[in-house]
Amino acid sequence: MDWHTSHRSNDGKWRIVADAPAWKHIDALWPSFREEPRHLRLGLGMDGVNPFGARSSSYSVWPVVLVNYNLPPHMAIKKGHVMLSLLILGKYKVKNMDVCLQPLIDELQSLWHSIRVEDISRPIGQRHLEA
Question: What is the pTM assigned to this prediction?
């Protein structure tokens, strides 16, 4: 779960998500989060799909997926690791996507503040990870 810490590029080129300025910005804003490399880093992705293939159809589907950035890129986008977390269906175009995403964001924040995680690869006295 800490693959991204040992595979960053040294020449300034972006090869993995951890090389991007956004990753460095998050590390600068929350240094305590950066200190533990096994903290789960998720990327949220979404894209509208017209399920009937006709451009004139007003029906749309918006799958919302979560990608675990702690895994190597070749694993993070494979079938078993991409998490379909939400489907936004509708006959008409979604005007305010924030309203649809708010329950997912609330649930992720709730999980962040309420789940105790242990690392079983560590000795018994050192297993608890601080959030």
Answer: 0.67
